[in-house]
Amino acid sequence: MNLLEKLHKIGFSRLTSLKDTLDILFSKIKVNPYEEIATTNALNRILAVDFVSKIDIPPFDRSAMDGYAINAEDSYGASPKNPKKIRLIGIIEIGEYTELKLNKGEGIRISTGAPIPEGSNAVIKIEDTEIDKEQINLYTSVVPWKNISKKGEDFKSGTKILSNGTELKAEHIALLTSIGFSKVIVRTKPKVSILSSGDELVEPGDPLKPGKIYNSNTPMISALVKLYGGFVEKEETVKDDKKTIKNRLLDASKESQVIIFTGGTSVGTKDYLPEIMKESGVILAHGVAQRPGAPVLIGFLNETLTFCLPGTPVAAYVSFLRIAGPAIRKMLGCLILDPRIEIMATINKDVPVSNLGFLHYLRVKLERSDDKIIADPVKLRGSSVISSLSFSDGIVEILPHREGLKKGERVIVKLHPK
Amino acid sequence: MNLLEKLHKIGFSRLTSLKDTLDILFSKIKVNPYEEIATTNALNRILAVDFVSKIDIPPFDRSAMDGYAINAEDSYGASPKNPKKIRLIGIIEIGEYTELKLNKGEGIRISTGAPIPEGSNAVIKIEDTEIDKEQINLYTSVVPWKNISKKGEDFKSGTKILSNGTELKAEHIALLTSIGFSKVIVRTKPKVSILSSGDELVEPGDPLKPGKIYNSNTPMISALVKLYGGFVEKEETVKDDKKTIKNRLLDASKESQVIIFTGGTSVGTKDYLPEIMKESGVILAHGVAQRPGAPVLIGFLNETLTFCLPGTPVAAYVSFLRIAGPAIRKMLGCLILDPRIEIMATINKDVPVSNLGFLHYLRVKLERSDDKIIADPVKLRGSSVISSLSFSDGIVEILPHREGLKKGERVIVKLHPK
Q: Is 60 exceeded by the pLDDT of residue B194?
């Protein structure tokens, strides 16, 4: 009897591949509405429209150097020993619009970023000149358009510069403000309620009685929800009692777009979640062919997307990263549903897997060795070992058809989300 | 005359290598005081102490499976055709402390995570058994300690589990709460004032007049300060007038630990910053051998660390990432001063550099090609081209002694901060 058959036997209605699970899940998710916010507050928010520039960048021909706006022709043949001479006729400061016009034999002092005056087609750098009263000595020759940033050279009005679904970082905020957008249209954040149940759970800070453990799932999932762009509406630890759990879930479904419940999805004696979901909601998937993290239940309670993740922390963590987190980002309309950075590395030992047909998550620590990056599997026992997460750098996925990894094999490491 | 000589000529008191600049700078920075906050609010904060576990994890021998706690010996020789039989004497729920003791020939129903009763040395999985009233049929044999997570197996009381200076992510929050810490001691956030000057600057949202550009540096630096763990105390655009700039800087120095000023550090006509810093503060460095970003000025105004970064956006961006950002993280006591993720890639063309002796920053876009990652230099002209940042994935540093990069060379790409 393989693990798949066993899981069927012990109560999972069916065990779905991760890919099929995500296909079903994503097909049911609608993208959130949008809101307009100040660009300065938009760090980590998700754009809800394509952004098109309404201006040319640069908006005018401008100097790329501190120097003199000249006619390039006036510099031809200039050298330190044979300087060319022109006449200073004025100055253009940055930010100043000028009516000054340049004729042959003339130069205008100009700052970096200042607009090029009419009649000029080059800027000579200040350090390639010397000034003597009104006479400018040019010590080098410049070609036409030297040291000038042309209007529209970076991009022209009408260019799409950022796509709907982009997660806004410092460089995007710089880009949007540089073309004058003080406000941006972004997706509203999904409201997420985080519930845990388990009579074994004690809240951090309280004394630990025999047989009990501290509740670390709620704070962990809460941090992940924030990292993935959700808004944590509430965090609650619920008594391990069917009626209480049901009432709290139904309450949460009225206030939230997403519920993430940890604990209560295996076939332990007190696991009421599948019953509650059958009675009061719709089940999309129950049981995913992944290890750890098989006992995942996904459904809707009223209109609220509800995830019941395993209570063991590592299983809850990987299930969030692969399923609940990407679902939140789907609501946000993100271009990239899994925001983790991927790194190529070489695995440094054989890693056999225990159950063919399952996607396996291997926690690894990264080390640099010459110009190679080595992925070293973190020694661990079971999915309750939280230290295997904080002592590792990322996760390698071993595909369901693989019997494991071979030492020296190139693997993709998905770094823990930052 | 090389660029170094030219820069000397045009007013930089001296041009310092980036390494020396950082050595001088970091030697002057004191680590911030600490504060105690709720662990649940600690995402992205920096630990101010080593964290040592006061308990064993797991805190007791516990079941890693749903099944029966048994004596391993009672299962020896069991097979589907020849099941061994034992007697069910009770049940242990998760979270329950039990006085139940197990004798030979007995089994106790146990949930994943529940404490192992005295007298038991193994757990047999539920799917390897069948129950018939009070008789449990065992269909397989298990070795001693099978499916038991031993007390202290993950780590023991007294183990240092997180180091002073760690940036707290979801997995660290899970670890800290799992050992009962509801509060953590973290560094206070440095208060940062962000000032820009330049008569050419128009605020985003206002109409763009001829010769003007939008101020994108303030929002960009503000986003970066937040990403690097600072608190933005104020953002201000200052008129390009020496007295005004001086007064605003002195005001900001009373409210902030750090001032970041953009614009006003080149030798343009209106560049007052070096004068102001000489009159009212102490200059640590003026001019750094990097491109873009040479005209950086670093000093103290009163006790406030003051950075004057170039006004061109890309130069301001790289100078923040390499100098001002790490300084903020030094105040935070971070273990890692440059938080950017590094990726190995292969450069896909020759990249000559213009000035030997300077550290060059090359913006690149990453592409995956088979099992290689290719770094493709982003076409750009000058450090004012903001799109070169948002259209790229990261930065390759070309060391000062190198004349450039050769096509096919392996390079380290520092990804833009997330």
A: yes
Contact A10 B126 (CB under 8 A): yes
CATH of B35-56+165-187, one of 3.90.105.10, 2.70.50.80, 3.90.780.10, 3.40.50.720: 3.90.105.10
Partner residue opposite B200 with nearest CB, options A94, A161, A418: A94
Q: Averaged over B331-337, what is the pLDDT?
A: 97
- Report cis status (omega within 30 of 0) of the bond before B292: yes
Task: Read off the pLDDT of each residue in A255-281 and give the average, rounded to a whole number.
Answer: 81
Question: Are A211 and B114 within 8 A, CB to CB?
Answer: yes
**pLDDT for residue B266:** 46
- Would you state the pLDDT for residue A269? 42
Q: Distance, in angstroms, between B16 CA and closest chain A CA?
A: 20
Nearest chain A Cα distance for residue B121, angstroms? 17
What's the gap in Å between the CA of B275 and the closest CA on chain A?
18
pLDDT of residue B264: 57
Contact criterion met (CB below 8 Å) for B388 and B363: yes
- Long-range pairs for B93-96 at CB < 8 Å and ≥24 separation? B93/A199, B93/A269, B93/A270, B94/A198, B94/A199, B94/A200, B94/A268, B94/A270, B95/A198, B95/A199, B95/A200, B95/A201, B95/A211, B95/A212, B95/A240, B96/A199, B96/A200, B96/A211
What band does B380 get if pLDDT is binned at 50, 70 and 90? Answer: low
Phi-psi region of B329 (alpha: psi -120 to 50; beta: other; left: phi over 0): alpha
Domain ranges of chain A: 3-32+189-331, 35-52+164-187, 62-149, 342-415
Q: Quote the radius of gyration of chain A (alpha carbons, Å).
A: 31
Top CATH class, A35-52+164-187 = alpha beta
Each residue's pLDDT tens digit, A212-267: 889 999 999 999 999 999 999 999 988 888 899 999 999 999 999 999 999 754 44
